[in-house]
Design brief:
Number of helices: 7
Radius of gyration: 19 Å
Largest sheet: none
Helix content: over 70%
Number of strands: 0
Low-confidence stretches: none
Mean pLDDT: 82
Structural class: mainly alpha
Distance between the termini: 32 Å
């Protein structure tokens, strides 16, 4: 592993964050602009990144590695959910308890981690890094949203399920998997 390259990428990420903080401090970016940029990131950039990461030749070893990674991450998320419920159950304020549970389970490693993985390990690294990003999206849009949901009826549960299934990132995962399995066959 090239530590100099890793350090350079981390410094670049912090420099970009500082530019964002500076733009916010001098009121260069309005609240609506920040909201629009977030939407572009969530609904355009992230799905494109997910689909692009699946553009690899199909092989049984890749499928096996993806499945093992996914299973391991599902176990890790399950443990994190159980531990956070146990650790934070004594917090009386329901809103605070939900916030700390969510914060202890879900990170923002996808947006920061993918560029670093790409620079260190190339497109093959990104192919395997999409598994945690995909599972983050699935868990975040199901359990994560559920942490903040109020008591709901069957219609609102159906609407939540619809929002999970038709989330652009989840759709991108399915498109990427279809492309990987059927269109990038080794010839």
């Amino acid at each position: 592993m090239n530590l100099e390259l890793l350090f350079g990428q981390i410094v670049l990420m912090f420099a970009l964050m500082l530019v964002g903080v500076g733009a916010n401090k001098v009121k260069f970016m309005h609240e609506q602009t920040a909201s629009d940029l977030t939407n572009v990131l969530l609904y355009v950039v992230s799905p494109c990144l997910i689909i692009e990461s699946f553009e690899k030749p199909y092989s049984a070893s890749r499928v096996h590695a993806l499945l093992v990674s996914a299973l391991g991450l599902i176990v890790v998320y399950g443990i994190q959910i159980i531990v956070s419920k146990f650790v934070f159950k004594k917090i009386k304020d329901k809103n605070l308890r939900r916030i700390v549970e969510y914060g202890s389970i879900y990170s923002n490693a996808g947006f920061i981690g993918i560029p670093i993985v790409s620079s260190l390990f190339g497109s093959t690294g990104v192919f395997y890094a999409v598994v945690p990003l995909a599972l983050f999206n699935i868990f975040n849009w199901t359990h994560g949203v559920g942490l903040f949901a109020n008591e709901e009826n069957a219609a609102s549960r159906l609407e939540k399920l619809r929002s999970v299934l038709f989330n652009p990132n989840i759709i991108a995962i399915f498109i990427g998997l279809i492309l990987f399995c059927f269109f990038y066959q080794i010839t």
